[in-house]
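Q: Joint fold for the lines below.
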Amino acid sequence: MDLREKTVVAIGEREGVTGPSLKLLAESAGAKVVFSVTQCFV
Amino acid sequence: MTDPAILYTSYVLAHAPDFVRYGSKPTREIEADPSLLEQVAGSLRSWEDVLAYPPNQVFIGNLTPDDLAATERPWYEHLVADAKSEGPFGRIVTQAALYGLMKLSDDFDLLMISEALADQARTELTGFEHRRDRITGLPPEELQHFIDQHDGLELFHEGELVGFIRTVHDKDASLDAHVLFENLACKATAVLAASEVFKHSPIDPEDVDYIFNTGEEAVGDRYQRGAGSLSKAIGEVVGCLNATGSDIKAFCAAPVHALVTAAALVKAGLYKYVVVLGGGSQAKMGMKFRAHLRNGVPIMEDCLASMAFIVGPDNGDAMRVRLDLTGKHPIGAGSSAQAIYQALVVDPLERVGLQMTDVDRYAVEMHNPEITEPGDSGDVPRTNYRTLAAMAVLRGEIERDDMDEFVAKRGMPGFSPTQGHIPAGVPYLGHAHAAMRRGELKRVMILAKGSLFLGRMTQLVDGVSFVVEPSAELIE
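A: Joint structure:
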């Protein structure tokens, strides 16, 4: 998936991939992350 | 110097099906769609099914985690024959007994229950001797009068209106009936766990110097929401007359923070006996009820869980806390799973020249997968153990093909109710102690993670760990 110039909302999960990690990943692929958060579903 | 050790443990479950409707999630969802209440009521488990549920029997020590691993799933369909409400680590009590515990824990006449329920509570709350005279009820007309005269929350038992908890101040959200209900449920279940831990030990409550409460409730009023403490409130009920205390707040990681701190206080010689405890989380009841309804499985977040530990000088029959082997997740460590486990597991082990395979068993987040999987949250313990195994592969300690064996040998299935701070590593301490007494384990690591980001003050996660080993006398 080409994320360049895409706008991303990053919703991470504590027991999986966290919000800040998703943000870093998406930004490194050229996306603009407008919101990132980690949730805890347990 | 004194070697600090975890001397005694207790675990308690309180079956509370009529409390599920007042969990945070069900409250909001039922308010939006009142027809859900009937669906919830139709999907709750009976006392017999909760008692015989294999993970619950593991929680109080009548079965081991290895027994559970060998039990076919779904566990709610493979119930334990002749299940007991008492086990080597604690007990499971009925909802009526829970109402009795809440009544005797209520110092401000917040809670009123019916005469009939009070009678039932006294009958079913066996083996508990504190404040039994406070389990009193009102005749029906007086209870109705109390309800008519106050703002608050109607309370139910077997679907019938049997009680009421009043709002203390209509302009103070921190003293709203629902908040007080959560706080009182937490206090009452912690009281029972404390009572159980003393019942299983020769230590007198009056010998305790300090109490750490690690529950997740916010006690306080509008000027200091969450700044209050339950530690002394709990100790007061069970007779810890010489103790003071405070609450450690660290989301799910609080019990592990508290146990490390308690061990350090004992090691320093400041206090001899420190109790670490935590009551149940009413807000989390029924949190995943929608997923359970959708998948046609019982609503399994139907119990409040609590626990208590006595930390003191090593008595020769205990779990020594290796203070040189504690782990912490520093602010600058990063929040990926690998970064967290590097900080919590690898760094402390490397500090003393040990490898990951030198730990016989790891206790991670012990959430029961049967509760989390219907909501697509996966098998949390298994995910954590797979991450640990992967790190052992990366470090060259095991081969990639040995990952499953690492998970099976050094891990275990989740058996804890999803009650926030309760599942975070510490449910295994009772089993670890028993296995060390049997000479089966030499080193266990307890791990906990805390979701600091939930309060929207930081994106950080938290984590902390410690290692226990058997007393030298147990090894001999």
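Q: Anything notable?
A: The longest strand of chain A covers residues 32-39. Helices of chain A lie at 19-28.
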